[in-house]
Structures are given as structure tokens and as C-alpha cells.
Amino acid sequence: MPKPKKPPLRKTTAGPGGRLNHRTVVGRRRRARTEARIIEAALHVFAEKGLRGAVIDDFIKAAGIARGTFYNYFPSIGELLLATRKWLNDDLVQSIEDSISDIDDPITRFGVGIRLWMRRAASDRAWCGFVSQLRLFGTPALEKPLRDIKRALRARQIDVPSMDAAMDLVQGAKTYAMYRMLTEPRGADHGNNIAILILQGLGVNRKTIAEIMRRPLPEFRRQPMTIR
Amino acid sequence: MPKPKKPPLRKTTAGPGGRLNHRTVVGRRRRARTEARIIEAALHVFAEKGLRGAVIDDFIKAAGIARGTFYNYFPSIGELLLATRKWLNDDLVQSIEDSISDIDDPITRFGVGIRLWMRRAASDRAWCGFVSQLRLFGTPALEKPLRDIKRALRARQIDVPSMDAAMDLVQGAKTYAMYRMLTEPRGADHGNNIAILILQGLGVNRKTIAEIMRRPLPEFRRQPMTIR
Amino acid sequence: MPKPKKPPLRKTTAGPGGRLNHRTVVGRRRRARTEARIIEAALHVFAEKGLRGAVIDDFIKAAGIARGTFYNYFPSIGELLLATRKWLNDDLVQSIEDSISDIDDPITRFGVGIRLWMRRAASDRAWCGFVSQLRLFGTPALEKPLRDIKRALRARQIDVPSMDAAMDLVQGAKTYAMYRMLTEPRGADHGNNIAILILQGLGVNRKTIAEIMRRPLPEFRRQPMTIR
Amino acid sequence: MPKPKKPPLRKTTAGPGGRLNHRTVVGRRRRARTEARIIEAALHVFAEKGLRGAVIDDFIKAAGIARGTFYNYFPSIGELLLATRKWLNDDLVQSIEDSISDIDDPITRFGVGIRLWMRRAASDRAWCGFVSQLRLFGTPALEKPLRDIKRALRARQIDVPSMDAAMDLVQGAKTYAMYRMLTEPRGADHGNNIAILILQGLGVNRKTIAEIMRRPLPEFRRQPMTIR
DNA sequence: AATGAATGAGGGTTCATTCAT
DNA sequence: AATGAATGAACCCTCATTCAT
Hints:
The structure is a homotetramer. The first copy, chain A, is mainly alpha-helical. Chain A has two domains: 1-75, Orthogonal Bundle (Arc Repressor Mutant, subunit A), CATH 1.10.10.60; 87-228, Tetracycline Repressor, domain 2, CATH 1.10.357. Chain A has ten helices and no strands. Chain A has helices at residues 22-49, 56-63, 67-73, 77-100, 106-123, 125-131, 143-154, 163-183, 190-201, 206-214. Chain A starts with 21 loop residues before the first helix and ends in a 14-residue tail after the last helix. Residues 1-19 of chain A have low confidence and may be disordered. Chain A binds a DNA duplex through residues 13, 21-24, 26-27, 30-31, 34, 55-57, 65-69, 71-72, 75-77.
């Protein structure tokens, strides 16, 4: 009596006519909604309790789901963190990249990008709290800025003794500023000021800095939370 | 069972007549030695496991003491962290301050201080790991540098849009650089490069920066671990 | 939330007028098929994971059904176990009884029955794994052999100090042998050897044993899996 | 600052004069007592709830200890089971071996051993319940009987078609009888009856069996529970 | 009927803290 | 002081069962 053993848990249960089963479609939609809900909640929880300090209970309370439901979606807090970071990365890259896609000059792109980043941090506490804890190095979120800055170096728009040190300065200043924005009140200009100092640090000349700072920031296009 | 718990704050246990008897003296010496041992171990443990990730077991194993002994000295890990940070602060301020006490020019003091800080980070992994996790803001460790930088501002040696932003840049860059030194190999110049970028960021003029960087760094005076 | 839960015991769903309509007939057939599928799968699962160690997931994966579907058929794993055992009992009694129905001599019937049982165990791993875990005492599966052995006692074909002890010997030896067949390789004769030892244990005389063992075993009549 | 790192948690904390520290001695004694208590309790729990059905709570309640204490001794129920079985093995081998060490004749040793085993089962419900669930094969507990039976075979005291089958008969009958003693009332002779049937099954001749059964059983030497 | 997302009770494990010696 | 066994609250994770579609 060999075991025929069906292929396990088909992804798509198609009805007799090949059309997607109604139940399946409904189920899927619900699934996606719940996942988005959990990630959305996770952003706040991680921001508040820290990446290490959060416990399952925090997430399920914030998302309004049952304990078991959590595990239907993520096998551990670590996985949830990954998913949240991935979502955030996509969202971040997307929203900033969209806004500066029409800028050609590398250092200007870079500078405006920092201003946008900092403005977002100032306007969205949860986002700021979460991002400020992330180690973004080597992550897609930093690919674009890194490319810009390399181009700027080749174009002699910046003057730094080493790329590694330059990136540490950039990321360090941003991260630290974000962290402190959560703790102490900071003026409305704080983001811009940080941008100025970073550009100064990179050796960008005064005039260029002034130009970058004078630029009106494009409208905020915050897209609604969606997964994938 | 809430925790009223007052610090046992041992007063001088004087013998009859008010003089310290022999047992007391011996006991005290032993006490100080054990405490130093625990803090020394804690530095490594915190560096390795993180400020949040360390458990009592890590400390007692590293210090080679029994579980109960730990509680004879510190009522909780949090208190140990405080004590460790305090010790580090003292040590840090002391060793750097000692080395630059003969410098008068504020920006030079500041710049050399950063170079010393980074050199220490590069040469002492545990120190680097521990300090890079600390939020030093408002802490005595930053008082002196802050004063120097304020004086530099008054002397128009630096040019920044805001002091808050300036300090975020300084601390952020240092902290981030320390963190990354632990993860990826960095060249021997990394510390100096960071110093250059920070000074550039503060708007210090080229020539001054060059002078600061040219200064030979005073010898390392690592004092032996002592408490209080 | 205690569980009052009455068995849904579906009565004939007859259409208006009392005749079975087409949908009902089709539905019933489908129902029977699914139930058979679950039980078939359960046999393997119980054999593999143990009576206690199997979880719902094992059954639904093995049967290729959805979680909810399981509960449409069995209110719990316990009930499924009962149903599986019942099916096995019927099948067992049937297939062995069919094969020896033409033997009149009680001890011969009994002996051949044991040989058949052991042959089945050797040829069907899942069956062996499942049955070896069952406590068959008092179950219909043992009624017939018990009757045979009682008759053999009356006919002085066996010589035992007590019927209880005799049955323990018989069931114990069979069960243990089955269990070990799963674990270690056993020669093709193992079943026959066990039969010999059991008969010896019951005090059957040598010659009779030899005759029983010499008998060709009737062909295997494995009936297809059907419920009720 | 290299880490001196003491050897972890010395087994023996000796005082200055090399004598065992008093605290250490006391602690050890207590530890041994608690361990014995847990194992003793485990025997009953396993007997009652089954090897698979017992949960941590059962053990800690039975042993009268706290949840955490359990884990100070055993990392899991599985480990506890192992320890319990090991203890039982030692105890079993010891107590039976002691009693028959003065018998030379292999089959007599073997037969008396079975009678002792069954007598113990009848007089100690927890023992019986636990042992009847164990798979003793390949375990030290069966080494001695196995050796005796092999010697008996060489001495032509028994007559079996295969050693494997013989051992299945022996263990199967004993195990099954033990299991049933727990469920249904069995006469005082049940153990002896099982012994007779087993010996018959092995082909021992009538007279020898009668002699073995006539032998007075040596006094029970139940040693007090001690670990190691 | 069939489906699979949601639920929450039950059970496992860790670890800070206490306390008798 | 130092020791380490004992404690139990806080967390983690699984899995039987329900229920809307």
C-alpha cells in the first residue's frame, strides 16, 4: 500500500472550469489585509519598544489579532522585523526616488534626498522611531544615495578622504538626528540644518549648498500602506 | 511583590571606639576588588551581547562569581549598566582630558579629542563595542567637548546653523563609525578621516584642519581599572 | 467553553415526497469517498507518528483535504482513531476469518490465524505499525481466536495454567514481534517462528504444531478499502 | 584588555586549606536529594499518564517543586525519562541479579528471574506501569537474561527456532501481562503462570519447569531510592 | 460539502531575584 | 561576604477547534 500522497496544499485551488475558487479569492484578500495590518502595527511597536524589546503581546495587541494569528503569518519576531524593514525599504526608496527622479545633478539629488528623508522623519514619529534603529548599511535603501555620492565624487562635487568615512558621516548624522528628534524637541529647521552640515562635511562648496537648500521640496507623496 | 528596595548604601562599619578594625578594612578591600572585577567583565559582556541582550549568567560567568554574589553588589543589570557607564565616563574624560589639557585653542582641543577617541575605539574592541551603544547625550562625557565647541563658535572657528545639529553630526558620525569598525575592517586612517569630515562639517577652515591632523597624538595613558 | 457537542448524525436527507433526489445521492457518494480517504490516510499517519503523536495537520496533509473538511467528518482525532480501529477490526476479522472458515479443528484454526496475522504484518508496514500500537483486548478482533482457543482447551489440545495468562502470552508475543519488525529487519520466517513459539507456549504437542506449520497459507484476499 | 576568563563554574570550590567548602557540601547534598525526589515522582507520573502524555506540570506537582526547579535538573521531559529509565535499569538489574547470583544453572536463573520480575510488577503498581511502557530492547536491563538464555540454548535446555523470536516471546508476554495487571484484576498466580507459559514456549521440559516453579523465591531486597 | 483564516487554551522555557547556609 | 538551589512571572509556541464564506 504505497502512499499516493497528494502534492501538499496547492497554492491555487481552481474550480472545475479552471476559474479561481471563490473561497480562495476571498481568503487571499483577507490574508493580505491581515498581513498589512500586522506590519503596520509592527512599525509602531518597534518604534516604541525598540527592535529587541518588543514581545509578541505588543504586536497582537497593536494589530488587534489573536496570538495564534500572529504565527499564521510570521514564525518569529525576527521575521516580522525583516518583513517590516523590507516593506519600509520599498516604501522609502519609492517615495524618495519618485520625488527626485527629475533631478540630474548628483549632489543635488543627494542633498534633496537627505532633506526629504529628514522631513519624513520629522512628520512621522513612528517611521522616525523605527528607521532610527535600523542598520541600513548594505541595504537597498542606501543604494541610490550611494550611487549619487559616488558620481558626485567623480564630478569633484565633493571632497572626502575616503568613501567609507563619508558614508559613516552621512548615515551617522542622519540616524543620530532622528534619534534625538524623538527625545527632545527640535526646531522645524533641524532636518535642513543636518543636511547643511552633512553637505559641508562632504566638502560641497557653499554656493551649491545654498542652492540645494533653496530648492522647494516636492510635495509629499505618501502612498497608502500596501504589501508587495 | 513590588520592589521597595533601598540601596544598601553601606556606611562605614566602624568598630567600638570609632576606629576601623582589621576585618572591616580587609572586607572593604575585597569588596572593591570584586566590584571592579564585575564591572570589568560587564564591559566585555555588554559589548558582546548588547545592552539589552545580556543576561545575569553572562556576567557571573565572565566575572567568575556566584549568582548570589552579583546581587551583593548590584540590585539589577540596569544598575550594573549605570555603574559601568559611570566608570567608563570617568575613565574616558580622565584619559582624554589628561592628554589635551595643555592645549588652549578650543577647536584644536576638540579635534584632537575626537582623534584620541577614535584611536581608542580602534585599539580596544570591547571599549568600542560598549561605547558605540551608549547614548552619551547629556552625560558628563560630552560636557568638555561641548564647552570647547561653544567656545570655538564664539571664536568663529566653526560655522554651523545650530548647535543641536552640530552635536548630532559630531556624535552621530563618531558613533556610527565606531559601530562599523566592529563589523567591517576599516583602514588605520578611519578615525582620522572621520575627524576630518566632522571638522569639515563644522565649517572649520582647511588650514586649521590640516594643522589639527598634523599634530602628533600624545601617548596613550591607560590608567588601571579602579572604581571611584 | 465546555463541549456539549452532539454527533451530527446525519439522517437521510430526503427530498419532498420522501424519495432521494439526485443531489443527495451524489453528495452521499462523495461523502463516503472522502471519509474513506481520511481513514486510509489516518492508518498511515497513526502508524508513522504514533497514536498520541499525530496532529490534525498530519491527517489533512496526508488526506489532501482542508482543515475544515476534517471536522465535517470527525469531531476529533480520538473519534478518527476509533473509526480507524473499527474499520481495521472489520477488515481484519473479515480477511482472516474468510481464509480459515473452512478449517474445523480449533487449534489449527487458531494457529493458521496467527500465521496469517503475522504474514500480513510482514507485508504491510502501515498495517503493522498501526496494529502494533492497538490494545485489542476485549475488541471484536479477538473474539474469534478466543473462542477457538477455548474450544481447544476443552478438547485438551492445549495445556495452560490459566486462560488469562494464555491470552497475554499470545497477544504479547504477537504485538511485540510486530513492533520489532518495524524497527529491525527480521527474517522471512519470523512470523512462523513466533507462531511456533506461541503454540509451544500453549502446550500444543509437537506433531500438531508441525502439521499446522506445514499447511500452505491460503491466498491473500485483500479487499478494497470500504467503509461500513 | 585581554579577558582573563576563569574556568567556568568549578565543580569543587575548595577552601583555602583545600578542604571542601561547607556551602558546597551542603548544596550538593540538597541537589542530590531534589534530583532523587524528581525521579521518584517521575516514575509515578509516567506510570499514570503515559510516557508521552505527561506534562511538566504533572512532574512539578508530584515532586512538590517549582517550575523553574525542574529545569535546573532536566532540560526536558525526554531527559527526565532517560534518567528515570537509567535509574530503574540499575535498580532492576541490581535487585534481581542480587537475588539470583547464587544460581548457576542458566535456565533456572532465567526462570527465577522472570518470576521475580513479575512479582515485583504485581507488588509495585508504579513500577509496573512504568516498566510496561518501556522498550527495554538493547538496554542493559536485558543483557543478563539474554546471556542466560543463550547459555541455555547451548546447553540444549531450550528449543527455539530463532533467538530473535524467542526474545520477542519473552519480552512480549511479560510486557503484555504487566500492562494487563494494571487494568484488570489478575490472580496472585498470574506472574507464575506467565513464567510457566514462557518456559513452555521456549521448549523447556516439564520437569525442569516444575522445579523452577517449586523454588522458593528469595526475599525481596528493595533498596532505598538513591541516585547513582 | 469544502475551504482556510482566526482563535485562545495549554504547555514549554528562560531568567531575574530571593534566601538559607 | 560568598554561594548556588529554589522560585515563579513573563514569554514563547503549538495545535485543536470554530466559523464566515
